[in-house]
Amino acid sequence: MANQSTIYTDPFLEHYQTTKRLFWGIGIILLGVIIAGFWNFHLVDGFGRDVIAGRTIGDTSTLAGSYGERGGGFGFIFAAIAGLAATFTACNCVAFAMIPGLACSTDKNATRKTAIRAITAFILPVVLVGAAYGIFIGILGPQGIEFFNEQAVRGARARATFSLIGIAMLFWGMIELGFFKRIISRLSPLTQEFFSAPVTKAALLGTLVGFFAIGRPFPVFREFLTYAAAAESPTYGALVMMIHGLGQIAILLGLFFLLVWFAGNRMMKWATEKPYQPRMVTALALLGGGSYFVFYWGLSRIYDIGRWGYKLGWYGG
After folding, report:
1. Is-contact 302 139, C-beta < 8 A?
2. Which of 215, 218, 272, 287 is 20 to 30 A from 94, alpha carbon to alpha carbon?
């Protein structure tokens, strides 16, 4: 009975009736599909390759094979730039929709420190997943990475990784919208409290973002992996991939800290007085991002139902 009471007194479910939640949920899923269908990857990837990387370290396709000449130290710079260049690619931009959810806390005693703890919990798994991936890259070495970067292999890896991430985000978004409340109510109160905590949610989100690198087919990133693998060192691979992980979320972190610094008190007040609103923002961000990933990396690739801008001749190429 206690769990049922909690469900029926949930301010989120009271404020957003089922029809309203369905309306917003279906709407944001359709928006995610539309964005994915019209995504111009040539424009976005080109910005990262030609502007961010090209104007800082130069032609990354040439740099990929220069480990013997430039050495391990340059690899850390390459890692940071490769991460920064991937910021707005199709496999990374979704993370920006999560900033409001990271910056808000529904705890009545919330402070800026609460938000900082959440962002720390977000960063840690990004770095740890990167380190584990870097160990694998170091073990592969030059010959292994050549096969790993082949088009068929990287394409399959990207489709599988981002489709699974998208499904996880859709499921999480549905939970946030309260559509699985009967299943969730069967969990112990302690389990529900743990997974509803802002720090836990931030850590889970950081884990998803960390896995972005595993599926990422971005040319600059592939060329960086070639450089890192040339060292034939798992330790070196782990270190440079940790730097890459920080690079891919650097702009997001900057926006987050600006938001907390200039609007932190107002956001905490908003989250305390109307906790159902930031929860809705988080739910919609998850659903939109998840539908984007599932359509862009899964359905459109398997059934050739995407790339609308290219098929209409809007983007060329």
Report:
1. no
2. 272
